[in-house]
Amino acid sequence: MIIGVPKEIKNNENRVAVTPAGITEFRKHGHTVYVQTDAGKGSGFTDSQYTEAGAIILSSIEEVYAIAEMIIKVKEPIASEYNLIKENQLLFTYFHFASSEPLTQAMIARKAICLAYETVEKSDRSLPLLIPMSEVAGRMAVQEGAKYLEKPMGGFGILLGGVAGVKPANVLVLGGGIVGTQAAKMAAGLGANVTIADINLQRLRYLEDIMPANVDTVISNEYNIRDLIKSTNLIIGGVLIPGAKAPSLITRDMLKLMKPGTVMVDVAIDQGGCFETSHATTHEDPIYEVDGVVHYCVANMPGAVPYTSTLALTNATLPYALLLADKGWQAACQSNEELKKGLNIVKGNIVFKGVSDAWKLPYTDVNSIF
């Protein structure tokens, strides 16, 4: 198969979808890989490393899209890429369709095969291609939250871990999944008082067992959230409904219950956000304020630590990408239920229910497309 790796062009996105090590593996399987020049530069990989591994370097993104049967990316295509996508071309990347109707409509119109990292799902309901970036984003959420709690950054002016004789900050983590678990570990490690809220009592029992003494757990409901936010300094939103729009757990009217300078980090922003007042921001312009509350809603948080993120992501994606290249998308998805669940839009048809529900568009059963 002919594989294309374009340079990511989303704001401050420095990750790359395939490393030189990945190129070597594709070449061992007999595939041809074209990489756009400087695609790996932000992650610390040079064009010469790619060519030594067996890739062919192309100078423009247009050339990469034009020649490739499968495009492997990190982030969803942006508007300037839409017209480069060919009918029947396979795109393997993060899409998060439920947060963007224009992207959804564009991919329907292009009649491409859109296989989304975030909905590839194992039999145990885990999301193997979302987990590594959720780990990075969960840990980063605490770093960023601690920074924006500083007074010059607009925050309340509290040190997350406090000092002798001064109480630490209170951190509320919404969601006890991968993001929430990593965020709680980081915040607890810095000495904050942490509360994890989740609707799954079994998950809370597990977290209660493994977390240090400065982490508490509570059932997530509106009453408890309204009560907790009155004394919380940092709120991290990490709820996820795979492939669907995230629920709004904190509404606009709740902001008035918070202390001025409270910071909210919405890690669920790729799926529409779990705060009603959230809208996507960039690394270049990461925050805004609503009713005295600082919102950090960067949609590609792991892009700020591209070396770590690229290696973590490609460790997970490469086996699936090789399967797609070796068998073609149809045979690969027919033989692998995990990959089949990654199909979101195929030749103009929405085949993932969460996407059709998000925009009230027609749904086609995925099994009918083979």
From TrEMBL:
Q: Which residues bind NAD(+)?
A: S134, D198, R203, S220, V239, L240, V267, A268, I269, D270, V298, A299, N300, M301
A single GO BP term for this record reads: L-alanine catabolic process
Q: Which InterPro entries match?
A: Ala_DH, Ala_DH/PNT_CS2, AlaDH/PNT_N, AlaDH/PNT_NAD(H)-bd, NAD(P)-bd_dom_sf
Q: Which residues form the Alanine dehydrogenase/pyridine nucleotide transhydrogenase NAD(H)-binding domain?
A: 149-297
Q: What is its EC number?
A: 1.4.1.1
- CDD domains on file: L-AlaDH
Alphabetized SMART domains for the sequence:
AlaDh_PNT_C (SM01002), AlaDh_PNT_N (SM01003)
Q: Which residues form the active site?
A: H96, D270
Q: Where does substrate bind?
A: R15, K75
Say yes or no: keyword Oxidoreductase present: yes
Q: What reaction(s) does this enzyme catalyze?
A: L-alanine + NAD(+) + H2O = pyruvate + NH4(+) + NADH + H(+)
Whether Cell inner membrane counts among this entry's keywords is no
- GO-annotated cellular components: plasma membrane
- The residue ranges of the Alanine dehydrogenase/pyridine nucleotide transhydrogenase N-terminal domain are 4-137
Which PROSITE patterns does this one have? ALADH_PNT_2
Q: Report TM segments.
A: none
UniProt keywords, alphabetically: NAD, Nucleotide-binding, Oxidoreductase
Alphabetically, the GO molecular function entries are: alanine dehydrogenase activity; nucleotide binding
- Enzyme class, UniProt record, top EC level: oxidoreductase
Identify its protein family.
Belongs to the AlaDH/PNT family.
**Designated name of the protein:** Alanine dehydrogenase
Organism name: Dyadobacter helix
